[in-house]
Amino acid sequence: MYKLCVESDFSAAHRLVNYPGACNRIHGHNWKVKATVNANELNELGMVIDLYELKNKLDECLSQFDHRIINEVQPFDRINPTSENLAKYIYEYYEKQLPKNVNMFQIELFETEKFSVIYSKI
Predict the structure, then answer these.
(1) What secondary structure, in 3-state letters, does 4-67 show?
(2) How far is residue 76 CA from its own chain's centroid?
(3) What is the DSSP string of 53-115?
(4) Are the CB atoms for 3 and 36 separated by under 8 Å?
(5) CA 57 to chain centroid
(6) 65: CATH
(7) Using one digit for the tens of pLDDT, what is the confidence trace for 16-74?
(8) Cα–Cα–Cα angle for 93, 32, 98, nearest 5°?
(9) Total domain count for the chain?
């Protein structure tokens, strides 16, 4: 099995609704996202998929949050924009953009260099 990883980042603010602490106030992060996909087969070029294509698909997903208040972006105008919820959303969005021969493995979302959340269905 082959695993491919691409990383991207975005800057955005959010607030955690009903959180009993400072994160209830609007604050920002320089988020980093690491997407991992897998596949068993290579194409005629000897690749699973072009890494630039994977990166572009991730950037497309993340662009909706960049320099925004995440609480104002659907579906986070209704769902608390925790790192966990955001990681799941990015996973599901990204998964829909992949060709059939490529499987979504996991999304790792970093709020900071020291804090991250991993979402996968495995």
Answers:
(1) EEEEEEEEEEECCCCCCCHHHCCEEEEEEEEEEEEECCCCCCCCCCCHHHHHHHHHHHHCCCCC
(2) 14
(3) HHHHHHHHHHTTTTTSBGGGSTTTTTS---HHHHHHHHHHHHHHHS-TT-EEEEEEEESSSS-
(4) yes
(5) 11
(6) 3.30.479.10
(7) 999 999 999 999 999 999 999 999 999 999 999 999 999 999 999 999 999 999 999 99
(8) 30
(9) 1
